[in-house]
Amino acid sequence: MMQTGPSKLIVVDDHPLFREALSGSLSSRLPDCQVVSVGSFKALQALLPQHQDADLLLLDLHLPEQQGLSGLAWLRGHQPALPIIMISAHDEPSIIRRALDGGAAGFLSKSADAEDIIQAIEQVLDGGTWVPAGLEQDKPSENDRDMAERVGQLTPQQYRILLMLDQGLLNKQIAWELDITEATVKAHMTAIMKKLGVSNRTQAVTLYNRLRVHKPELELKPDESFSSSDSSA
């Protein structure tokens, strides 16, 4: 059990209702803790330099600017000391195993109640690992761990360019979107391929997509999880 509670937590989820409900639940259960919340991975990247003292990060598995576990991979490379608990309605044992292999310290289902969330935070901050009760974990994957380490070497700008490559954008389009020159895009591309250990754009996208976790057609709706700070979460 933690001797003292966390002083700052970060919540990242793109659904406003779920994000607010989770943040409210944490603030109610941990009144001495500052809860910082954002709705996108890009916002998180901009936020992190101002919150280096965060104790733990709760990260949605499915965000618009990341493909499944790619965001986790980037964070492990840039914030290796920050414990991360993944959150998702997509809580199959194989996905949980991949998240843990990628460096997550825990995995919470979006149907978890408030008590489980607090217990998960306590256990992770005590150096343990948290997974939903009754779920067995698959065998670890060295390939997933290796890919995560490669993606974790990318700078924020390189990570954004890799996302745009995955969307099929050309260098000219990427340059326009990021307000940089095509020459700068090409320089970033060279660095991206070197860090990922690939020789062309197609191979870079293929490797990146191996960290993808396909989102279920029916995601848990906010009102199907917690609806108040002291009910389920």
Number of helix segments?
A: 10
Strand order of the largest sheet: 2-1-3-4-5
- The percentage of residues in β strands lies in 5-15%
Looking at the structure, the CATH topology of the largest domain is Rossmann fold
Question: What would CATH call the class of the largest domain?
Answer: Alpha Beta
Could you name the CATH homologous superfamily of the largest domain? Response regulator
Radius of gyration: 18 Å
Question: What is the number of domains?
Answer: 2
Give the helix level as a range of percent: 40-55%
Principal-axis shape: globular
Encode the helix/strand succession as letters. EHEHEHEHEHHHHHH
Beta-strand segment tally? 5
Largest sheet: 5 strands, parallel
Mean pLDDT: 83
Instruction: Provide the CATH architecture of the largest domain.
Output: 3-Layer(aba) Sandwich
Low-confidence stretches: 217-233
Query: Structural class, please?
Result: alpha/beta
Termini separation comes to: 21 Å
Which short descriptors sum up this protein?
Rossmann fold, 10 helices, Arc Repressor Mutant, subunit A, five-stranded parallel β-sheet, alpha/beta, disordered C terminus, 233 residues
